[in-house]
User: Fold Oxidoreductase, short chain dehydrogenase/reductase family from Chondromyces apiculatus DSM 436.
Amino acid sequence: MADLAGKVALVTGGSRGIGAAIAKRLAREGAAVALTYVSGKDKADAVVRDIEAAGGRALALQADSADAEAVRGAVRETARAFGELDILVNNAGVGYLATITEFPLEEFDRLVAVNVRGVFAAVKEAVAHMGEGGRVITIGSMAAERIPMSAMAVYAMTKAAVAGLTRGLARDLGPRGITVNNVQPGPIDTDMSPADGAYADLFRSGLAIKRFGTGDEVAAMVAYLASPEAGFVTGASLTIDGGNNA
Ligand code: NDP
Assistant:
């Protein structure tokens, strides 16, 4: 178990999928958890209710990661509600699949805004509220290192960007005792990438372990990185992909 008693965490995009699993796991380890959503208020409220029913503390905040002011507001609201931040998990992310000839520039801008600019804005504000022992964890993707099919170039680019950002921020923040890491999942069964979706068989065919992963499996890796035990791990991109990139 990762002992997070007394810690304060913010998980972006915590209403569904991997983010909801992370929020619940961090709360189970003892952290007070704020989670953001963009349009899924009912689902976000349900995650809060689940955490509270298990004896934890949680808060849902509407904050579009594409809007830097909203992201900054969510960090400040978390600190007001629970105290200064210990753990930031940049999980909110969006995808759009199309080859270069079909890819709209507006979608390029949206993916960069949420997956990269939103992460930068969140970290910048969060570290103003974070002391020694702080943890910044971003959910990247296996696609940062190996792209299993066409139509994923822009998504992969955004996830490669956060891997690079992670390495650089680890250098910036190491002297303050704050670690910065990147978790790179392979296919995880969520609304973004359902295990029975159009690309599921193609994804499965590339895996060493021939099944989709679960949000709980990703959350376990995040819980380790958030824990005091992981204090010497920083600047790392840890892949959890059923062997896709092996
Ligand atoms: P889902 O689409 O299932 O859930 C996305 C979550 O992010 C929801 O809580 C959603 O909120 C929130 N969100 C989406 N856009 C925004 C935004 N603009 N601002 C704030 N919150 C937002 O995604 P997954 O759980 O599958 O993915 C989570 C992360 O993991 C992403 O970064 C994704 O790129 C990454 N990932 C996923 C993989 C997979 O196979 N599933 C593989 C590799 C990486 P709301 O309910 O309000 O829409």
Summary: Helices lie at 17-28, 41-53, 68-82, 105-126, 153-173, 200-205, 215-226.
